[in-house]
Amino acid sequence: MIQSIKRAKSFQGTVTVPGDKSISHRALMFGAMARGETRIANLAPGKDVQSTLQCIENLGISVEADDKGIHIRGAGLKGFHPPQSALNAGNSGTTMRLLAGILAAQPFTSMITGDASLSRRPMDRIIVPLSQMGAHIEAQPGGTAPLKIHGKDLHPIHYHSSVASAQVKSCVLLAGLHTRGVTSVTEPAISRDHTERILREFGASVTQNDLTVSVEGPAQLQGIPISVPGDISAAAFFMIAACLVPDADIRIRDVGINPTRTGILSSLERMGCMINLNNKRKAGGEPVADLMIRSSRLRGSVIEGDIIPQLVDEIPVLAIAALFAEGTTRVKDAGELRVKETDRIAALEKNIRLMGGEIDTFDDGFSITGPQKLKGATLDSFGDHRIAMAFAVAGLLADGETIIRNAECAEISHPGFYHDLRVLSYV
Ligand code: S3P
Predict the structure, then answer these.
(1) pLDDT tens digits for 197-217?
(2) What b-and-e string marks burial along 326-343, b requiring 16 or more CB atoms within 10 Å of the CB?
């Protein structure tokens, strides 16, 4: 699909973003591992979460939908059935890496595959700790998917991860729930903590001590109702469009503001963005608010160190903000961007240059000096939803028409994204 975007004169209105993708994956998987019923309201509608849903159905879990949401009848920690066919994680790293932690402890062998992008992404980061716990996993040369997972009786470990990754942390903790004893993960910086929060709600014993998280197994999880807040990573595209388009004033309703995800709010505030958080409350163990954002004069900023895991998915669209900010924005310590759905640093460089912009890139980040002028161009999404959506925002600010090829990948996380963008934009 090809998507055309034109410059916006103003950006006004109220928008609701889809349910949080990270929380939705976990609600489905933990509901499947629990005893009893888990009801999920506002499950993320994107393709990634559909991949998780199909995988758990393929493992014999009954999932039903009605007008209130999704109902899962959990099977208990070891109640999964051997899958009829290979489990397909599609484009979703969270599906593959978290599910691998569960499958490694099952009394059967399973195969998990992904699309071309996921089949290039590093899986040794989960194969190493799961093997230390006693699992036997066959991967492709280079440690990539498809993975053949021979489930075993696992033992607890204390794993020191070299990357701050919630996917790695969650994989090891989920495997740890099946062992007898305490499994711990120490990270170099704090990554998103949805696994810890939701597992506690399901009745697991989870403790946190500085950069170390521990779970105690074997766990007895009990199904619960979960209401998924709006996805701050989906909200980021609208937030930055509102900062940059003249005469903008928008409200984004019911957005999750978990402190391990709000690096985008603090960075944008530091850059001079006018954001107000209204109606702060708690929903399903997670803090939620309505965000009000107006056109703002931005200044450049340095984004590095421990904040990176707290805004890692928002960096592509933050680069668009940097193009229009006064002064230099430097992003460092973000080498993980090279191994996301595409190499996001390379994708930013290609598309920004095609729009006539300038960016210096490094192994672990980039530097952009603004403000710059962009011209409409024909760009590729590289099959990456966050690249497609970041450059749709750039298109609102560029002269002439911007064409995004392979734009349909936005459906990975936000079906209806272009429609929602159009509704707020006055061209
Ligand atoms: C996610 C964790 C992050 C993030 C991804 C979702 C999760 O990946 O980029 O979009 O749901 O745990 P890493 O943990 O690999 O950094």
Answers:
(1) 999 999 999 999 999 999 999
(2) eeebbbbbbebbebbbbb
Residues labelled catalytic: 313
Instruction: Provide the whole-model pTM.
Output: 0.98
Residue keyed to tokens 């209105």: 13
Distance 340 CA to ligand 1 centre (A): 9
Quote the ligand 1 centre to 75 CA distance (angstroms).
26
Atom of ligand 1 at shortest range from CA of 309: 16
Q: Are 424 and 13 in contact (CB under 8 A)?
A: yes
> What are residue 299's DSSP bridge partners?
326
- Return the half-sphere exposure (C-beta side, CA atoms, 13 A cut-off) of residue 114: 28
- Report how far residue 46's alpha carbon sits from residue 401's, in angstroms, rounded to the nearest whole number: 27
Q: How far is the CA of 97 from the centre of ligand 1 (A)?
A: 10
Give me the domains of the chain, ranges plus CATH numbers.
3-19+229-425 (3.65.10.10), 21-227 (3.65.10.10)
pLDDT digits (tens, 9 = 90+) for 167-202: 999 999 999 999 999 999 999 999 999 999 999 999
- Rounded to whole angstroms, the Cα distance separating 324 from 168 reads 35
Q: How far is CA 423 from CA 16, 142, 190, 397, in A?
A: 12, 45, 36, 16
The number of the ligand 1 atom at minimal distance from the alpha carbon of 163 is: 16
- Please report where in the chains the tokens 């709010």 appear, as a residue: 265
Ligand 1 binding pocket, CB closer than 6 Å:
22, 94, 165-167, 170, 191-192, 312-313, 336
Strand ranges across the sheet with 206-209 = 158-160, 181-186, 212-217, 206-209
Angstrom distances, CA of residue 279 to CA of 130, 242, 255, 288:
42, 20, 10, 8
What is the Cα–Cα distance from 42 to 414, expressed in whole angstroms? 13
The rounded Å distance from CA 269 to ligand 1 centre is: 23
Dihedral angle, C-alpha 99, 101, 104, 105, nearest 10 °: -110
pLDDT digits (tens, 9 = 90+) for 357-407: 999 999 999 999 999 999 999 999 999 999 999 999 999 999 999 999 999
Can you name the residues that pair with 207 across neighbouring β-strands?
A: 214
* Ligand 1 centroid to residue 94 C-alpha, Å: 6
Of 24, 94, 173, 311, the residue with max ligand 1 atoms within 8 A of its CB, to mutate for a pocket test, comes to 94
Q: Which atom of ligand 1 is nearest to the CA of 313?
A: 9
Which residue from 22, 258, 307, 339 has its CB within 8 A of the most atoms of ligand 1, so it is best to mutate? 22
